[in-house]
Design goal:
alpha/beta, 14 strands, binds zinc ion
Length: 282
């Protein structure tokens, strides 16, 4: 329906925003179309017929040759299957998560309909006329998260690993703070010229931005340790002190990220847990 939802950002990059704004998705999930004529679609988004219509409407007679997903949260990958059924394009990208019924990584935010025909490992590529996309493994936000490099424009599609409007949520057990920090360091060492995140504006000084994100997490870690040292032991009591002014609908998500920090500190031998309480390791 709404072809005007499609915005050309560079010679090879178009953005189509899904109509799913929320405190978690900002203005909505941003689906990217790469190339001209024979194109790739990154993060097709939620399974919303209007968004699928917007994607196919924006493409007109162009052909989708690859549907790629950065990870399998429900605002990113559920449109992959219906878009593949409409267009015949193969689904590829991140690995599906193994979601045992009571398994350690089961989580209501995960899309269990995602069944890629090709799982891309770190460094794997897919290409079309004038474009090449290479997978960059970036676990942390989720264990299966990939970024995709558009080689011809030195652009990196960062999914939810690096977002343009907010820090990402790290929700254990699938989300892992130590992995996330390592994935930030991995990006800082790269020479990308621009990031296109799934939520928020493009990031034009990416290495500096990634350094600030890592510094922000170190500050959060320091805050948590100071609170513990002053006797605040429970996450529910830490969050309001750490996130003054935060939309209270996001307190739960903030608590997940605090838990991710605490697990990381526990694994490094800095803190220990006693039931729901946390204290310094002896
Ligand atoms: Zn996500």
């Amino acid at each position: 329906m709404t072809a005007e939802r499609s915005v050309q950002l560079s010679p090879l990059v178009r953005r189509i925003t899904a109509d799913n704004p929320s405190p978690f998705t900002f203005t909505g999930t941003q689906t990217y179309v790469i190339g001209q004529g024979e194109v790739a679609v990154i993060d097709p988004g939620p399974n919303d017929p209007a968004h699928l219509d917007a994607i196919t409407g924006a493409l007109g007679g162009e052909r989708i040759v690859a549907i790629l997903c950065t990870h399998t949260h429900k605002d990113h990958s559920p449109a992959a299957k219906p878009l593949a059924e409409r267009t015949g394009a193969p689904v590829m990208g991140c690995a599906p998560l193994v979601l045992e019924d009571l398994g350690p990584r089961a989580d209501a935010s995960f899309d269990d309909t995602y069944t890629p025909s090709r799982v891309m490992m770190d460094g794997a590529t897919v290409s079309g006329p004038g474009w090449t996309l290479a997978a960059v493994a970036t676990p942390g936000h989720t264990s299966n998260h990939l970024c995709f490099e558009l080689v011809e424009e030195r652009a990196l599609f960062t999914g939810d690993h690096v977002m343009g409007w907010s820090t990402t949520v790290i929700s254990p057990p699938d989300g892992d703070m130590a992995d996330y920090m390592a994935s930030l360091a991995k990006l800082e060492a790269r020479q990308d010229a621009i990031y296109y995140p799934a939520h928020g504006d493009p990031v034009e000084k990416p290495q500096r931005f990634v350094r600030s994100l890592a510094g922000h997490r170190k500050q959060r870690e320091g805050q948590i340790l100071r609170l513990i040292d002053k006797g605040t032991a429970a996450i529910a009591d830490m969050v309001p002190q750490m996130y003054a002014g935060l939309d209270q609908r996001l307190y739960g998500a903030a608590g997940r990220s605090v838990l991710a920090h605490l697990i990381d500190l526990e694994q490094r031998g800095v803190v220990m847990r006693a039931g729901d309480d946390w204290r310094r390791a002896a």
